[in-house]
């Protein structure tokens, strides 16, 4: 398994940024969830008072008990593990608040609680039906936020359900390489590329592409247009104009150095002001077609060897520039870490009318 140092990405093993850590639908009230990311065991739970997701390190500082991997303790069986926004250790019932501080040792009332009795807490947000955590090896505050998605609260749009692809034993740089990879579209996805452009701007990498696809994501011989944006190194949000207006999300988060957990989802616009049951069924079928297309890439990644270096030819996309952009997240932040440049690989028609491929001829103003 190739690690960050094998790719010579920088001084840190894990990147800085926002990363998905859970499908919010899997987070049940009163039931902490054991997860592992960034080489650390973590516990995610929903506060009973605030309803907000809370992410903390997994092990109690008292005797190293995992806070979520227990089903037989009476702390768990009695339903008292989550109290308000706090969590109790199932072993000795020490209680920790949302900031990770121990605030109660039930068998030592009035005793001074040691300052070392705390666990690390993480900054999290709940967005688009998912929980995202901010990770910075240097402990810094976020220097960008996840974007707004107006479609999420629009009743005409059918919200996604997440496809959990599980853990992939590949370094995330291999997935990010796809943003520069113009040449794989026809052999893998059956799509003839008419234009392609990659723009690198600070924490964002923006991929613009259009072509005719053999999949059912478009009407016959219609142009499939996508504007894909990486918001940092692990969250890819893509506007897709094909058979239906849609956005798809690909989120990948390091589990250990050299492995990632991967999710896929699609939100689809219906032709009605409020989506009907038939629209929901249509959207689910459309997401399945997108999932199958993503699975074509996933199969390649699963069985390839690490591309520590790429034998790049002039007709390839700008892998080298993309990897330079990607390295900024593995190094302490600073002005020199950011990239800003645009790379046109195939002709980019600036006045392209992208409404021609809609079945109803409509456009949207998102």
From TrEMBL:
Region of interest (Disordered), residue spans: 333-366
Organism: Rhizorhabdus wittichii
Domain Rieske, first and last residues per copy: 18-133
Biological process per Gene Ontology, one example term: cholesterol metabolic process
Pfam families from the UniProt entry: KshA_C (PF19298), Rieske (PF00355)
Biased composition (Basic and acidic residues): 351-366
CDD domains in the cross-refs: Rieske_RO_Alpha_N
Keyword Flavoprotein carried by entry: no
Protein name per UniProt: Rieske 2Fe-2S domain-containing protein
InterPro entries documented for this protein: Cholesterol_7-desaturase, KshA-like_C, Rieske_2Fe-2S, Rieske_2Fe-2S_sf
Cofactor entry: Fe cation
Record PANTHER family: 3-KETOSTEROID-9-ALPHA-MONOOXYGENASE, OXYGENASE COMPONENT, IRON-SULFUR DOMAIN CONTAINING PROTEIN
Keyword vocabulary terms for this entry: 2Fe-2S, Iron, Iron-sulfur, Metal-binding, Oxidoreductase
A molecular-function term among this protein's GO annotations: 2 iron, 2 sulfur cluster binding
């Amino acid at each position: 398994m190739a690690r960050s140092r094998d790719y010579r990405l920088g001084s840190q093993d894990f990147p800085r940024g926002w990363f998905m850590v859970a499908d919010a639908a899997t987070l049940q009230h009163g039931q902490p969830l054991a997860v592992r990311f960034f080489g650390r065991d973590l516990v995610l739970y929903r506060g009973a008072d605030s309803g907000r997701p809370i992410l903390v390190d997994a092990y109690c500082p008292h005797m190293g008990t995992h806070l979520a991997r227990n089903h037989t303790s009476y702390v768990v069986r009695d339903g008292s593990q989550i109290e308000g926004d706090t969590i109790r250790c199932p072993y000795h019932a020490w209680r920790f608040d949302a900031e990770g501080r121990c605030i109660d040792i039930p068998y030592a009332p009035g005793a001074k609680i040691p300052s070392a009795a705390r666990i690390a807490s993480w900054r999290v947000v709940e967005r688009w039906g998912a929980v995202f955590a901010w990770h910075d090896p240097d402990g810094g505050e976020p220097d960008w936020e996840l974007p707004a998605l107006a479609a999420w609260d629009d009743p005409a749009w059918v919200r996604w359900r997440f496809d959990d692809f599980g853990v992939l034993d590949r370094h995330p740089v291999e997935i990010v390489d796809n943003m520069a990879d113009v040449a794989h579209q026809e052999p893998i996805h059956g799509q003839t590329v008419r234009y392609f452009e990659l723009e690198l701007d600070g924490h964002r990498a923006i991929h613009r592409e259009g072509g005719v696809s053999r999949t059912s994501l478009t009407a016959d011989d219609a142009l499939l247009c996508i504007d894909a944006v990486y918001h940092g190194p692990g969250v890819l949000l893509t506007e897709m104009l094909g058979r239906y207006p849609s956005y798809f999300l690909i989120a990948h988060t390091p589990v250990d150095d050299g492995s990632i957990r991967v999710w896929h989802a699609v939100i689809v616009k219906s032709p009605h002001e409020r989506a009907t049951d038939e629209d929901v069924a249509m959207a689910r079928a459309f997401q399945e077609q997108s999932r199958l297309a993503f699975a074509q890439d996933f199969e390649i990644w699963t069985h390839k060897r690490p591309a520590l270096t790429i034998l790049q030819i002039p007709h390839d996309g700008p892998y080298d520039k993309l990897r330079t952009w990607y390295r900024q997240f593995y190094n302490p932040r600073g002005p020199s870490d950011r990239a800003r440049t645009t790379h046109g690989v195939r002709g980019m028609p600036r006045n392209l009318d992208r409404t021609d491929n809609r079945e109803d001829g409509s456009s949207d103003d998102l």
